[in-house]
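Following up on my earlier thread - several people asked me to post the actual chain instead of describing it. Fair enough. Here it is, all 147 residues.
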Amino acid sequence: MVKKIIFVLWVVFGVSSLMGQTVNTNKKGYGVDGYDIVAYFENKAQEGTPEFSTTFEGVKYQFSSKENLEKFKLNAAQYCPQYGGWCAYALGAKNKKVDIDPETFEIRDGKLYLFYNSWGINTYKSWKKEGAESLKIKADENWKKQL
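Reply from S.P.:
Thanks for posting it. Predicted structure:
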């Protein structure tokens, strides 16, 4: 119960500055907090490096290797996270843009979904428990409204 209260308070008070952003980027302008979005498709949450970076649709992305950078360049849209890199659960359950923990993710139907995981709240667990398919449908609808 306390975890849910903390999450609700964080959603209400913590995301107001994020509402204008379409894509979730860190202070340096990197999507997914500078993690290698190609590595997720190999079931790895791996930080990228500035040495292997590129920009796609105005967002900078880092990769852990030249190979992953090249894979991204061949089909960037395939690797980009759903919902602009915001928490999939929060978008589906609350229609809110909530920051993510780049190490909490799921590949579902060939797409990357990211989740908030901090302060004892792991929204990936909630996503699975409350029904990922129905939350995904809601998140898809909510995301279209946010664009």
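Residues 5-19 have pLDDT under 50 and may be disordered. That should answer part of your original question.
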